Request: fold
Amino acid sequence: MIQRIQTVYLFVCFVLTGVCLYFEMIAEMHPWALTAIMGLTGVLEFFGIFLFRRRALQMRLCTFCIILLLGWYAALVAFSYILGDGLVGEFRPRPWAAIPAINAILLYLAFRGILHDEMLVKSLDRLR
Reply:
């Protein structure tokens, strides 16, 4: 359902993930692990959009995507440390490396919206 704000957050995350993947692909040197993590995150965000009837699973997907994005930053730091000293080539973080942080914030906001919906449904079930 598009009218829910968390669906909009998840869609914006999906689009930003696509932008980040595009910039990773055109980069001169990009580790495959960063691309794989970002691709998995994008797929999970896309499926999360359509799980509006299963709010608990949607919340778990948001949490897992946030953890994946934190792992993306850990991998970025590891690759910067390993490849940054000039042994294999020059590897520096690019400005698009801020996109996963924006995604993590949007996923957190989506999680809060989903949780709010879940609490609302539970409160209405108590009234019946």
About this structure: The chain has one domain: 5-127. The chain has four helices and no strands. The mean pLDDT is 86. The longest helix spans residues 55-83.
